UniProtKB/TrEMBL annotation, chains A, B:
Residues 194-339 form the Glycerol-3-phosphate dehydrogenase NAD-dependent C-terminal domain. It comes from Lottia gigantea (Giant owl limpet). Its main location: cytoplasm. This is Glycerol-3-phosphate dehydrogenase [NAD(+)]. Keywords: Cytoplasm, NAD, Oxidoreductase.
Length: 349, 349
């Protein structure tokens, strides 16, 4: 078999961290993978220079993952078609709101035998309601799309701190190929077939993490925060059961499930957002500008999307935690009411 | 039905926090419960005065739960028989190494119709191997014994911060009676019948928490710590499956399961111990004296007990996390080897 060519679509902090891993892995496994990796990078100017040129000269994404050297075989490419034209494996790792536009540009221009793997957190919204990003990619590009999600805060992965992750692939051989692409001694990959649940966890945990941040901001202790995480997990499980039938409980025990939830509720940016929502009167948009300097919080977007869908389906009362988090982010509910929401949760009835 | 008389056996920080809850509840539900509660307290001298007298004068356990007022209907009693002679419900909340001696003193001296509820974390060791504390209590006293366990760091419960807990009761009516005794708006009780798993979780989470503290002490981030919690949970589930057949996966989703694990791995004293094991060369005993001033860490005791049992049964390789934590506490394994143990965990094979 000819070596597979890998392209990375996206180059934020998580994209850059994953570029470091796969850039090194393809060099070590050059019987399986081509050693040059194109990384699509949305062009922007940093200190008067093009970011792609900085990355290709300095081998460092000085804007989104400063201080971490990228392998020299990872080439930043500002043209999405040039970056992906030869790809056998497309790694999608960009904010979920850009997926549709990028995929429409790629439609008909990539290899028909290619496979995709989505590292994206979030849902797409279309006329049918909520759609998984992997399904959206697969539908637009007419190729299979696997997923990778786990307790993987980007900065820690980039610093090679030990962690686990979960690959969702319905096809076992593809799952094994992706394990070879992503696994390192500090980044352990488990492969499961229940891809939808892997992806659902990755989107919903950011909503729960805002809730964890809210109780942090209120000065609550570890017990209350544990209750938020547990009740959030119960809503995640119920959401998967209702909207993605066939979801397996065992998947929630993988890294994509409880582990990612716990890591995100303690170290992630959405937790930080929740804390700031309590401690200030600023809007989410203002907090984004202040805290993330150009990137966006995924949690409030997902919370808004599922709120709309649950409202349409008359299911708001079954997901009170998700609902309260959306309303608090939208400044339509006082943060003080959050504890009442926990207290009166249907899990207690 | 005559109101039930409640006695509390034990008066450390958790015993005192629970005395506050049940002391208030029996006053509000005086059709169901007698309003006077005896709390057995091991007598000791504090600043030249008897601790029981201080508690009964000041209504505060100044040694183990300072700053928290206890209801005046909770009476500290230094004589174990006097404290329990009329009890219909015996709440056991004392370090697990004292249970056997106390129960043998009570044998034949309590009401034969009484029921017990154990809030104790840990296992008993006898000639048959490991025994649950609730089984030990039940066997010695010939009465049924329920359990209560959850994400309930004592100080936070005493300060009325919202949390959840799990009551394990094979008998539904007893479960409901206990819910009435313990539930408050800030302390939500769920009742399950799978009592053994509730108790197993309460014992084993302290072992996992030492592991979480070890990676904290090594300066690892949230990803690694999440992996410790997940792998620890997988060993907890396997332990329950092997040694307590009939254990239900759903119980691990209750407060006694993941929630307590997460709270303990972030806020508990066993986590603190793990951190100090890495940062110093002191023995567990020295750290106990230094950090707990007279109380004991439950985690190392449980880790030692299960290590002995697993070794006898030739099962050490199936529980590498538990084993490593015991060996590190015993200073027989270097803390640096802990990450290799995570990396090579059978869950990854």
């Amino acid at each position: 078999m000819a070596p597979k060519t890998v392209s990375i679509v996206g180059s934020g902090n998580w994209g850059s961290a994953i570029a470091k891993i796969v850039g090194n892995n393809v060099q070590q496994r050059n019987d399986v993978f081509s050693t040059i990796i194109n990384m699509y990078m949305y062009e922007e100017m940093v200190d008067g220079k093009k970011l792609t040129e900085i990355v290709n000269m300095q081998h460092e994404n000085i804007k989104y993952l400063p201080g971490v050297k990228l392998p020299e075989n990872v080439i930043a490419v500002p043209d999405i078609l040039e970056a992906t034209t030869n790809a056998d494996i497309l790694i999608f790792v960009l904010p979920h709101q850009f997926v549709q536009k990028i995929c429409e540009q790629l439609k008909g221009k990539i290899k028909s035998s290619a496979i995709a793997v989505s590292l994206i957190k979030g849902f797409a919204i279309n006329e049918k309601g909520i759609q998984l990003i992997s399904h959206q990619i697969s539908e637009i590009l007419s190729i299979p799309c696997c997923v990778l999600s786990g307790a993987n805060l980007a900065g820690e992965v980039a610093n090679e701190q030990f962690c686990e992750t979960t690959i969702g692939s319905k096809n076992e051989d593809t799952g094994e190929l992706l394990r070879q692409l992503f696994e390192t001694p500090y980044f352990r990959c488990a492969v499961v077939q229940d891809t939808d649940t892997v992806e659902v966890c990755g989107a919903l945990k950011n909503v729960v993490a805002i809730g964890a941040g809210i109780v942090d901001g209120m000065g609550s202790g570890d017990n209350t925060k544990a209750a938020v995480q547990r009740l959030g997990l119960m809503e995640m499980i119920k959401f998967a059961e209702i909207f993605f039938p066939g979801s397996k409980t065992s998947t929630f025990f993988e890294s994509c499930g409880i582990a990612d939830l716990v890591a995100t509720c303690h170290g992630g940016r959405n937790r930080l957002l929740g804390e700031n929502v309590v401690k200030s009167d600023k809007t989410i948009h203002e907090l984004e500008k202040e805290i993330l300097k150009g990137q966006s919080f995924q949690g409030p977007l997902v919370a808004k999307e599922i709120y709309g869908m649950l409202k349409d389906k008359d299911m708001l009362s079954r997901f009170p935690l998700f609902v309260a988090i959306h309303l608090i982010c939208d400044r339509k509910m006082d943060t003080k009411e959050f504890i009442s929401c926990l207290r009166n949760h249907p899990e207690h009835m």
